[in-house]
Amino acid sequence: MTAGRGEAGGTDRGARLDRVLELLAGAQSVVITTHANADGDGAGSEVALAAFLRARGVEAWIVNPTPFPDSFAFLLPDPAWTIPTPSEEASRRCREADLAVVLDTAEVPRIGRVKGLIRDLPKVVVDHHPPGRRAIEGVIFRDTTACATGALVFELIERAGGPWNEDIARALYIAVLTDTGGFRFSNTNPACLGVAARLVELGARPEELYRAAYGSFRPRRFELLRESLATLTVHESGRLAWIVVPKDAYDRLGATVEDLEGFVDVPRDVAGVEVAMLFRTTADGRIKVSLRSVAPADVNVIAVELGGGGHVRAAAAVVKGPLGDAVERVVRRVEEGLGAC
After folding, report:
1. Is 80 exposed, middle or buried (0-12, 13-18, 19+ CB in 10 A)?
2. The model's pTM
């Protein structure tokens, strides 16, 4: 069973949920993965699903293309649940698994080195992003109207009747909290707030989890932000703005992608800006561009054209350098997109 356009609704939604639960129930060992450089939604969804499966007596291992993020390690009941790649243990766990579950992405390139490890496994994909060009084959449960993949994992566990525990509730709360920007983005809808309320009932503590997600940054993050702010540029139209992360400062400070949390919100918060961009140079010399928008601008369309993807209001892509050329090309494309709005 695969999704057509990717939306699950009505009777079909129930059937998809039941099919996913049937596959999970029939497995003795499950490998769980998400996209490279996992965010709070990907990491929280992984931990929640692993905790749910382990509470049901199923072996569950998190095998990601990049290390599990330090900023969300507090969600892990046991760090041993995560298996680094590449490693012999990761290869062995994948060989011994009955099922692979891919969360918060449905695109082959986004799972990097894990794609080879799970190539021969049956797969379940749970995602809330629009379909892309290189889809992972398997049983798909997708809803692009969901505020977070964590909300879909929540729905799976609720339909299964649990079991619930505090570890699951905390992880899913972080997934929803972070993918809505602390419940301030446009994807914060009634269904999202209903999920959050239920998770609080189940043991998630909002103040503690907000502090863990947004109040525990290392000093180097603020040093890097200070140097990045010097690059803030507002287009003459006033409708788009961008910020560049200086590679020399990033390297000098020993920064990681986790330190960049929220940087793209700086240009988006400038009055009148409809599309904000963050540019940074990757280790291989390419340029990662993150795009954020307010209605009616659709940055996913632009990201897909650039070889990436995401959501209507939040997307990203990796483009060729050098940096100056990349900024010029992307800004020009965003200008064209805004002209059509």
Report:
1. exposed
2. 0.88
